TrEMBL record:
The gene is CPNE9. It comes from Oreochromis niloticus (Nile tilapia). InterPro entries: C2_dom, C2_domain_sf, C2B_Copine, Copine, Copine_C, vWFA_dom_sf. This is Copine family member 9. Residues 85-223 form the C2 domain. Belongs to the copine family. It holds the Pfam family C2. One of its GO terms (molecular function) is calcium-dependent phospholipid binding. GO terms for cellular component: plasma membrane. GO terms for biological process: cellular response to calcium ion.
Length: 474
């Protein structure tokens, strides 16, 4: 920062050299923040000397090749950087007699073993008019937070020229570059407007985390930046798990159809209450964690599985999907219905399709424990690449779910990850049949365990009384 030497354009284009390694240069600035990171092996028992040279490039119109000006240098060891408070070392640059060369800030952090790769696509709307032509040339800069509370740049998007509603190209970034494998570490995103003279104006910023961003694969991630401007990850993009492709159903629709077409045969009226969780609802943007997909609070029933699918797709166009992801409200809503009929004439099955991120785990476990005494089973299908540790905990095959010292009366949750049923050969019919078979395999035993626990005997085969009906909620 604060380089005193200037080019004829009044600012400096800087290059940072580490021995023979060179970053991409940063244009037209006296306070460069370099994006490129260097991965070095650290040996505690060795002295690892480093030299940092900062060069300025003069790109004059009268020359075919740029010249390089020496702006300063410093020396240190890798151990000095790592041993500094927060892994952050500030050094004065020198090398030009009688000149103040500015300072260089070096940061280091031990890399995690995380090998995850994130692919994101962002869009924005309601951008302020910035230039003479009434449009903006926006770009985004991503920063990861450091242990000392500072931020380090980790990615820049391309500039989208002359627009108020930019859609940036999808980009891929290692998760450890974004947050070093810590899904809850703060990620800051600055929004800038690029000026034609090479400088840029600050528009606004927002903070998030990789855990929040990863929900963009099946939910809107919407962030207000300034004056009503919003940046979003949304299901209209192919990277979203909710993406409505004209060629094939998305993972949510395939899972719903596969399981629903089997279990609907055991429901006499074929009317299925279907709910969404985690969205801002029109017209006032109120956040709901249990809203009817058909938009009718008085009658959330959908006719058949095709009706559920139709309501799901219509809902995607109407609501703004939003975090956090709370399971407990939907489970409690269905449990309240099941609590009204416990004589064995009806049995309820709740199918939940999710990306695996649970924001209210404590409340969800309590809801499951309470529901375990009711005529209810819960099927959870996890879609996307997320880790499903929380789901495995709810599936009490090995360890029964507990809450506040109470064990669930019986195991009522069955969980499967959707990715285990993706047929590499492209045979979706076969793979969805396997999915339905596995998630429904435990339902008969769960139904019988409830009946036995209440001493409810099977009705005679020739009785005029109807058989117990499965009531399915989605």
């Amino acid at each position: 920062s604060d380089f005193s030497r200037e080019t004829r354009f009044s600012k400096t284009q800087c290059i940072l050299c580490i021995n023979l390694l060179m970053t991409c240069f940063i244009d037209n600035t006296r306070n460069p923040d370099f994006v490129r990171k260097f991965v070095l092996d650290f040996f505690f028992e060795e002295k690892q000397n480093l030299r940092f040279d900062v060069l300025g490039i003069n790109c004059l119109l009268s020359t075919l090749s740029p010249s390089k000006d020496f702006l300063g240098q410093t020396f240190c060891t890798l151990g000095e950087i790592i041993g500094s408070t927060g892994g952050r070392l500030e050094r004065t640059l020198s090398g030009i007699p009688g000149k103040k060369c500015g300072v260089i800030i070096l940061t280091a952090e031990e890399l995690s073993n995380c090998r995850d790769i994130a692919t994101m696509q962002l869009c924005a709307n309601k951008l302020d008019k910035k230039d003479f032509f009434g449009k903006s040339d926006p770009f985004l800069v991503f920063y990861r937070s450091n242990e000392d509370g500072t931020f380090t740049i980790c990615h820049k998007t391309e500039v989208i020229k002359n627009t108020l509603n930019p859609v940036w190209q999808p980009f891929t970034i290692p998760v450890r570059a974004l947050c070093n494998g810590d899904y809850d570490r703060t990620v800051k995103v600055d929004v800038y407007d690029w000026d034609r003279d090479g400088s840029h104006d600050f528009i606004g910023e927002f903070t998030t985390s990789y855990r929040e961003l990863s929900r963009g694969q099946n939910q809107f991630n919407v962030y207000e930046v300034r004056h009503g401007m919003e940046v979003a990850c949304n299901p209209s993009q192919p990277t979203s798990l909710h993406y409505m492709s004209p060629y094939q159903m998305n993972a949510y629709a395939m899972a719903l159809k596969a399981v629903g077409e089997i279990i609907q045969d055991y429901d006499s009226d074929k009317l299925f209450p279907a709910y969404g969780f985690g969205a801002k609802l029109p017209p006032d943007g109120k956040i709901s964690h249990a809203f009817p997909l058909n938009g009718d609070n008085d009658n959330p029933n959908c006719v058949g599985i095709e009706g559920v699918l139709e309501s799901y797709f219509q809902s995607l166009r109407a609501v703004q999907l939003y975090g956090p992801t709370n399971f407990a409200p939907v489970i409690n809503k269905v449990a309240n219905c099941a609590a009204e009929i416990t004589d064995g004439s009806q049995y309820f099955v709740l199918l939940m399709i999710t990306d695996g991120v649970i924001s209210d785990m404590v409340q969800t476990k309590e809801a499951v424990v309470n529901a375990a005494s009711l005529p209810l089973s819960i099927i959870i299908v996890g879609v996307g690449p997320a880790e499903f540790d929380a789901m495995e905990e709810l599936d009490g095959d090995e360890v029964r779910v507990s809450s506040r010292g109470r064990l669930a009366e019986r195991d009522i949750v069955q969980f499967v990850p959707f990715r285990d049923y993706i047929d590499r050969s492209g045979n979706q019919v076969l793979s969805m049949a396997r999915l339905a078979k596995d998630v429904l395999a435990e339902i008969p035993d769960q139904l019988l365990s409830f009946m036995k626990s209440r001493g409810i005997e099977p009705r005679p085969a020739l009785s005029s009384s109807p058989l117990p009906q499965l009531h399915r909620h989605i």
